[in-house]
Amino acid sequence: MYRADIEAACPEASYGRLRRLTEEIGLLNETSEGADSYLLNQRTNGRVYGDEMGPAVNDELQRVTQHINRDPHVRQVIAEALEVSPNQVNSVLFEGDLFEKRDRLEETVNAIKANETVQQGDYGRLDWRSTPNVYEATERAVSLHRR
Fold first, then answer.
1. Domain residue ranges in the chain
2. For the segment 41-100, what is each residue's pLDDT rounded down to a tens digit?
3. Helices (H), 28-138
4. Distances in Å between the alpha carbon of 76 and those of 72, 83, 95, 115?
């Protein structure tokens, strides 16, 4: 059962209480589903894990580049947001590691959304998310419940 499900069923089940039941009292086991974190693609609402992250960021940046090529106003908005000259925008978007490119994508999408003179194209942010933990009753909890 996910923490959100537990909290919905029992509003008193705060994160602190779940920690105590897991670590101090030993009534719950906590497990994680897969990687510790993933990217949530705002365009597709899909999750992106591990080795797929770099290509996913590059794909969204490529979509931004296509929009830039269709609308010169978009290039100007992005240039101002990234504090570079308009002729540097395409190259600057793809500079750096995964984290730098993802951050630049976020800045770009946020700037376009905030600007009233341009509309967002077919691309979106990739937001970091933590994988939810799953909780289950320990044997001790089950035996106490049966008494």
1. 3-33+132-146, 37-129
2. 999 999 999 999 999 999 999 999 999 999 999 999 999 999 999 999 999 999 999 999
3. 53-70, 72-82, 89-93, 98-114
4. 7, 10, 18, 11
SS percent in the chain: helix, strand, coil, step 5: 55, 15, 30
H and E: helices and strands count for the chain: 7, 5
pTM exceeds 0.90 for this model = no
Q: How far apart are CA 117 and CA 97, in angstroms?
A: 31
Q: How many CB atoms lie within 10 A of CB 86?
A: 14
Mapped onto helix, strand or coil, the DSSP state of residue 135 is strand
DSSP 2: B
Distance CA 62, CA 94 (A): 9
